[in-house]
Each structure stands twice: as C-alpha cells, then as structure tokens.
Design goal:
By secondary structure, this protein is mainly beta. It has a single domain, classed as Jelly Rolls. Helices cover about 10% and strands about 50% of the residues. The strands form two sheets. Strands 1, 2, 4, 8 and 10 form a five-stranded antiparallel beta sheet that branches. Strands 3-9-5-6-7 form a five-stranded antiparallel beta sheet, with no helix packed on it. A hairpin with a 6-residue loop joins β6 and β7. The protein is elongated and about 60 Å long. The protein starts with a strand and ends with a helix. The mean pLDDT is about 90.
Length: about 170
C-alpha cells in the first residue's frame, strides 16, 4: 500500500465510452468519480482496459485512432510524455495506393502498474477523462474503457501535494 493512502473500498470497475463528435475531431468524455474532498478521498487506478475502433483503410493514406485516459481536461489527446495522461491506446493503418498492401500497427501502454507497483495512477481531483481523436479517417472513431481501482483516503499532506501536482501539472 502507498504510504499516506488508506483503502476505503474494494476494487470497482467504471465503464465509459466516447465517440468523436465529427471525424478527426478531438472529443472527450468526463467520468465523474464523486470523490469527497472534505474527506481527502482519492481514486487509486489499478488497471485500464480500452477497446478502440479500427481506423479506416484508405488508399495511400495513414489513418489513426488515438485514445487516452487523463486526469485533467485536455486540448490535445496527449501522450505518455504528459504527466496527466494515465494510459493510451493507438491504432493506425497505412494502405498502399490501390490497396494492394496495407500495414497495421497498434500500441497500448501502460494498462496496469509496473511489476512491484500496486497501482497505475492516483487521481486526486473529482474527474478523469476519456479522450479520442482520429487522423485522416472518413468515419468517426469510438472507444470504450473500463477503469479498475478503489477509493481511498489520503493523509492531509499527501492529499494537498497530490491535488497541487494534478492541477498544476
């Protein structure tokens, strides 16, 4: 267990989904965690499962679907280089002109804590966000996610430092 954090619930699963508002347009869905700031309540994320739609297959074009789960609202989909991005999933496909050949790629990282780490991320504020954006697709992209974790209370010092770090990023 993390020092300064005490579990107050068993593991829960929160399911959510997001669909682009228009093709190739960043769209986010807010997932409310209903945490109590008066009780220094946090959400300890232990695992995230994501299922994302396949990008379109268009001749001579690289098409992508990029999805992230973040602890703050974003103006871009983000990457693991951003401190508030908890997990990501990407799929891309590039079709040759005439579609005689195509190459597909997928990436998901991380979806659970590293070996020896009991958690993936600790959310100190009330919401997390499922973000999606496609690139060069003719149709809208979708994603579903299941976020596994538990509620906990943090010591005053851990809570104050966590909230400040999360808000100031």
């Amino acid at each position: 267990m993390v020092k300064g954090i005490k579990a107050t619930s068993d593991i829960v699963a929160i399911s959510t989904s997001v669909t682009e508002s228009a093709a190739n347009t960043l769209t986010s869905n807010t997932v409310e965690l209903a945490l109590s700031p008066l009780d220094n309540q946090v959400f300890v994320v232990t695992k995230i499962d994501m299922d994302i739609s396949n990008p379109d297959l268009l001749p001579g074009t690289e098409c992508r679907n990029h999805v992230t789960v973040s602890s703050r609202a974003r103006t871009t989909v983000g990457s693991l280089a951003d401190n508030d991005v908890i997990a990501l999933s990407r799929k891309s496909i590039e079709g040759a002109a005439g579609l005689t050949t195509a190459v597909a790629f997928s990436e998901e990282a991380p979806n659970q804590g590293s070996p020896g780490q009991e958690y993936l991320f600790i959310v100190f504020t009330n919401d997390i966000f499922l973000n999606i954006v496609g690139t060069n697709n003719a149709t809208v992209m979708q994603s579903q996610a299941r976020i596994w974790g538990y509620r906990a209370t943090a010591s005053s010092s851990v809570y104050a430092a966590g909230v400040q770090a999360e808000l100031l990023g």
